[in-house]
Amino acid sequence: MPSRMTSQAPPKTKHDSNEPQLQQSLVAIFASDCACVSPKLATVIDQSQAQSPSALTLLAVTFGSLHLSKSWRTDSAQKGRIPNGREILRETLTADKGYHREKWTRFGNEAEKLEEGLIRSRRLLRTRVDKMALRKEAQKKASENLQYLERLSRKVPDFAVPLRAHTVWEGMTVQLACVVEARPPAQVTWYKDGKPLRRPEMPWNYGLEQVFGFNYLEIRRCSPDDAGVFKVVAKSSLGEATTFATLVVNSYKGATAGLDDSRYPALEQATFATTFPPTWVKEGDSFTLSCSFTSTLLPFQQDVTWFRDGTQLVQSCEVDIKTTNDTASITLSEAYKEHEGVYTVRLKTRDGMLESSAYVYVQDASATVVGGPGSPLLVQVSDVNKDYVFLTWQPPSADGSSPVEGYYIERCDLSQGQWVRCNVDLQKACHYPVFGLKEGARYQFRVRAVNRAGAGRPSKATDAVLIEDPQQHARTMKVKADRGMTIIIPKDELEGQVRTPFPPTNVHACELSDTYVVLSWNEPEPRGKEPLTYYVERLQEGKSSWEMASLDSVVNSPRFPVFDLVKGMQYCFRVRAVNKYGVSEPSELSDWICLGKPKTVPAPPSSILAFRDTDTSVLLQWQEPKDKEDVLGYYLYSREIAQQDWKVINNKPVTDPRFTVHGLQSRKEYVFRVKSVSRAGNSDYSEESLPILVKAAIRVPSAPSAIALLMCTGSEMVVGWSRPHFDGGDPVRGYYLDKREAGTEMWQEVNVKAVRERRTTVRNLTGGLWYQYRVFAANMAGVGKPSEASESFLCEAWTMPEPGCPFDLEVREVRDHSLVLLWGAPLYEGRGPVQGYLVEISQGDQSEEWTAVNAEPVTETYHKVSGLQAGQSYRLRVSAVNEAGRGAASLPSEPVTARTSPDTKNIEAGVDDDGFIYLGYECDHVDDGSEGLWNKNYTEPIDGARAQADSKDGRSVLTFRDPNEEDLGLYTVAMSDDPGLSSSYLLTAEDLERLKELSQQVKNPLIELKSGWNVEVSETGVVRLWLQTESLSDRAELRLVFNDKEISSTPHRTIRFDKAAGLVEVLIERLSHEDEGTYTAQLRDGRARNQFTLVLVEQKFRDLMVLANAKRRDHERKSGPYFEEFLSWNVDEDCQVIIKCKVTNTTKDSTLKWFKDGVAVKQADYDHPSGVSALTIPQVGKKQAGSYKAVVSDARGEDVSTLSLRDEEYDKLLQKVSRQCGLSAGPLKVQTTAEGFRLFCCLIYYISDLKTTWSFKGKRMEPQSRLRMGNNMHMVWMDIFNPTENDKGKYTLEMFDGVDTHERQLDLSGQVFADALLEHQRLKQERVIEKNRAKVTKGLPDVVAIMEGKSLCLTCFIEGDPTPDVFWLRNEREIAGEEQFFITREPGCSTITINNVHTDNSGKYTVLVRNRCGSESVDVTVSVYKRGEVPPANAVEMGL
User: Mean pLDDT lowest for which of 2-11, 317-326, 1065-1074, 1086-1095?
Assistant: First the structure.
């Protein structure tokens, strides 16, 4: 600026010498006035003066000029001249002071505006300078990095992928390719046979390309001239590299390029031999699809490709693709619903591509819970951010036992390997935002459908997803360097000076749902080097305060799902950026946002139409819903008419409104329905389609074959042919024949009206010309394709002596090792009639080696060929023979494989329901209208007067009217729509005789008896007479005769006849003597009849009456409460007698009472719920004998049960108790006493009826002075007094219960005896000592009370030998020498007297007696009370 102003200033004059002083004065005045206007402006002026004086001078002059412009104009107008600078300054200095101040006030305002503009200019200038500095720094770093990379990347040229030799067919396109690696880049040159290839000089069909080191040469429409050796040379300053390859071009005839084609035979290209059918695989299983080819794949056919729904499949860890010389296959290791679809294999041919396709159905795997839904599918991940992804999926086709209520979303961090649920509440729609992921981690996601039964199987997990910043690529700067290289520098390195972040921008909702809102925004720019997080704030409509929406979450990416919004309420959002330096200002506010409306499921499709396709498939079509914007596809369901369950057809939605359903059962009726699929869920089911029978649709027939000339007269030809291989599902109605002259292209119709026979006469021909023919077959669907043109036939009259050729060969009854061949007789017989036929056979489809089947001619026009190899294909032909010789052979038959079809059935012979003999043949797979064509001996028609044929629903029956010997022979049948379905049956005389016998039985049948007359008595006493025959028809009749009179139902007697079960019943309510007699049932059912008789008289009848009366009385008893179990007794293990009974049919009002000998018994227990009542007798004695009775009763009646325990029954009871007592006896033991030994045995209890006997050493013991025997309630014992050594031995106790003897033994000898004897002696001595010991026998109470002032006398009685010494103690001290106490000691007693007692005499007094055998003491408490006091309650009061 100063230099520019200097150059523009006028030249100095002599008047300008004081210019600097003037400028300084002007600046001073300007600064002074600025200070008056604004102190801040003055500070700016001072800084400017120090930094740039010239700029400030210019500013002062400029603003001074603005203020003085008016003066300049006025003076100039007056004086007519322009003043110079000095004059202007002088006038300014002398101007009026007030005017001066007014002008400068305006100047101050403008200067303040200038200040603001100056600040903005300085900020802009600083930003530009910083950017230039940053760019220079980046270019410097890029240059250094580039130099470093160049030093590292220098590499000698090398071919990472060299050239590969190729062998191609003539006319194909080939690419020779290689990859060159070199630093610096190498110069690449192509050579062919040593000559360089340059673009201007290359052939027209050559194309060279070089892209990023990839070099390839494309040669289009190869010819033998293109064959040769190709070389590529890569050269650079560091060296060079070379690669070679040979190209061979083969012609279609198989010759190598450059050689004579005639030397090599033509190579046949491969086509499909077998392909794969529709396949069903369960979810999670593996499956393989394979196909085979007719020959080895040629080189150009090796690349067999596989597709699913139009998308090519490639080799991977899940997909294994294999191709061999003659097969190709694809294997999926684990099938999921995503893998369902149309699989296609493509094979290259010279004419283009051959394709084969089939649908693969993936069925649901077993549910994890019973009734659980199927697994969702096609889980897709989108909008990946640093901590957020968005998931979408498609609902499953199978809801399970109840509709799908929602979904659980699960994630798996691959570093941890554990699946974690993402949502707590069920997600209704098929999309969900997943938040809170870890940046840098790899995740997989899957979804489970949930219904009332629980969560179903998980979907296929997604591919691993790397959680990263999607804008990372945008956070870089590309700097171009020398030699075309680019250096990438992260922006974080350039924005390192940013501290507090700027606010985010463009806050908006990127996803709206009825349950959540996903917010999205743009990161601040510049963002800075430090990592950013975000605070999300929201403002609810109607409120004034902002609240934190991300309070519990750390938001790392510009996505945030909000779930806790209130429906119907609007919200406004803003976002703040956060780094380690602080929090930014809030972003601009978003628009008002509210939750979206729930998406509704689409409407179901309509107009479901089903069309026939094949024997196992049906074509479905439907009308899509009007609003199909959100429809993802359709699920299909099928149900067989005879069943109730619907089956899922497809588990992956189909997008086209038509689908071919495979895997159906032929000849079964089905209905179908469809669902629409969307993210909101599946629609309701559509209406069911009309039922459709699964069978092949009617099509036009295939082309006839084997056109032969049967006869020629010179102007006429008779042409014959064979039936079409496939009639299209409808019988052929006729044939059309075309002709043409050999060598011409134009065909002419021979017949306008279809001919039914497979031959016709062509008239008006020209002799000497050659003709060709073709034939069309027609059925209800139309006219099929024409046959191939026949060979050329010469129109000239036949005069040869040999017969013409047979025609119309047909093969029937194909089995593993045989077949039957039929043919038509030749129309031209030659010189004589045909005498027979010779049959020849050729093995294989194309072999011309023919072998004679029959050595001698056969006269019939059929022959059974045997000795075939199973699985081998054959062709046959026939020649006619007459006297002149053998004529021309027929055209060979179509190849036929000797194999018994799984559907093969034979003719069965039987008798129908009317007794007619028939031959029947049944086929499972025939078309409507198909008939069985019956013949005798293959060619003879059936005489309608002797038999009649009928066909219906795939079954053909030949019924004989009255068969005899004339009907014997071979019968054959073939179905009209498929003669291959055929069989034969030889009806012999034995068969006819057997069938006639069976026919006679059918015409005059007997009703078969299953069970003869049976007699039963019910619980109520009703007598039932019944018999059962085979099942009878509704026309069956019954006539029941009793004692030669026909009877019918009466109130007393009921007759029932169940025809379907063949059951005849006679129910007699109350049997009486009038019912005695003979019963005869006469049955008739159509022609069948029979009769059955029951004789019920004398003793048999009397026994029946007794039984009926007894059961009737018992039933009447049971009308009220009754005894289900009568009174009975039992002895338990504790030897207790239990008398019990059980009642039933009781109510709460029913009572049960017990009696013994007429006296009520109260001890019985009664459990009302179970009806069991019991009376327990702990011990049995004579008083327990008697008559027991139990009575149960209520308002409906009563029942009585009695039990007599007397005489024999009582004895039986005692024996039972005795036996149980004996069983309860313990072991025999010994007890030592002072008197001797006691041998004893313990029992639960002992009764006198249990007889006991003691034995010693096997001898019975009797009571004596030293032996005493006895018993008590629980013990049997024997005492041995004063035992000696003679008492050693074995002792036995026998207890006899009246039936059995119970023994207990004890061996009292040895140490046992010694110990017992020693113990006896010790006890005996202790008894003597105890007897002589001093003791107090009686006399002293425990507590004594006496009134003060009285005398107390206490006396005790004493025993002992010798006489014991007596001592009296008071409070443990002996009383001796005290006047108040007086003690007397006499034999047998001692007395203490206390005179004039007082309270001090209270205490414990003790008498102690003692001699040499022992001592004893007795205590007595003395309580002295004063007069008026109450003595102790427990004391004996004395001194009264």
Answer: 2-11
Residue type (1 letter), 466: L
Tokens representing residue 1183 in the block: 């008083």
Q: Are 1009 and 1088 in contact (CB under 8 A)?
A: no
Only one residue has tokens 């002797």, namely 946
Q: Determine phi and psi for 103, rounding to 5 degrees.
A: -65, -40
Place of tokens 């036939």: 793
Q: How confident is the model at residue 482 (pLDDT cuts 50, 70, 90)?
A: low
Beta bridge partners of 364: none
Rounded to an integer, what distance in angstroms lies between the CA atom of residue 1356 and that of residue 1343? 14
252 pLDDT higher than 70: no
Phi/psi at 1300 (5° precision)? -115, 155
Name the nearest CA neighbour of 586 among 559, 546, 556, 542.
546
User: Taking a C-beta distance cutoff of 8 angstroms, is the pair 581, 530 a contact?
Assistant: yes
Look-up of token digits 């080939």: 174
Among left, alpha and beta (phi > 0; psi -120 to 50; other), residue 706 is left
Pairing of strands 166-169, 239-250: parallel
**C-alpha to C-alpha distance for 1276 and 1261, rounded to whole angstroms:** 14
Cβ atoms of 608 and 686 closer than 8 Å:
yes
Displacement of CA 417 from its chain's centroid (Å): 23
pTM for this entry: 0.52
C-alpha pair distances (Å), 480 with each of 44, 213, 487? 43, 20, 6
CA 748, CA 937: separation in Å to the nearest integer? 40
SS3 1353: strand
Percent of the chain predicted with pLDDT > 70: 89
Walk across the sheet containing 228-236 and list its strands: 166-169, 239-250, 228-236, 187-192, 195-196
Q: How confident is the model at residue 1377 (pLDDT cuts 50, 70, 90)?
A: confident
Residues 6+ apart with CB under 8 A from 1006: 1088, 1089, 1090
pLDDT tens-digit map of 305-314: 999 999 999 9
| Four-residue CA torsion sign, 397, 403, 405, 408 | negative
In whole angstroms, what is the distance from residue 1057 CA to residue 1060 CA?
A: 9
Query: Which amino acid, 737?
Result: L
Residue 926 has a pLDDT of: 66
The sheet that has 1301-1308: what strands, in order across it? Answer: 1259-1260, 1251-1256, 1289-1296, 1301-1308
Question: Each residue of 764-811: pLDDT tens digit?
Answer: 999 999 999 999 999 888 899 999 999 999 999 999 999 999 988 989
Which amino acid makes up residue 1067?
L
**What's the pLDDT tens digit per position in 1254-1294?**
999 889 998 888 899 999 888 999 999 989 888 899 999 99
Identify each DSSP E strand in 723-765 by its residue range: 734-741, 748-749, 759-762
Element (H, E) at 692: strand 692-693
Instruction: Answer whether residue 1091 shows pLDDT above 80.
Output: yes
Spatial distance between the Cα atoms of 288 and 279, rounded to a whole number of angstroms = 9
Question: Which helix (H) or strand (E) is 1305 found in, with range?
Answer: strand 1301-1308
Pairing of strands 1251-1256, 1289-1296: antiparallel
Alpha helices, H only, 410-536 = 491-494
Considering only CA atoms, which of 659, 652, 566, 647 is closest in space to residue 610? 659
Tens-digit pLDDT profile for residues 72-87:
334 443 444 445 545 5
Cβ contact 641:725 at 8 Å: no
- Quote the CA–CA distance of 1214 and 902 in Å, as a whole number: 82
Q: How many CA atoms are closer than 13 Å to the CA of 531, on its beta-carbon side?
A: 8
Residue 319, classed as helix, strand or coil, is strand
3-state secondary structure 366-401: CCCCCCCCCCCEEEEEECCCCCEEEEEEECCCCCCC
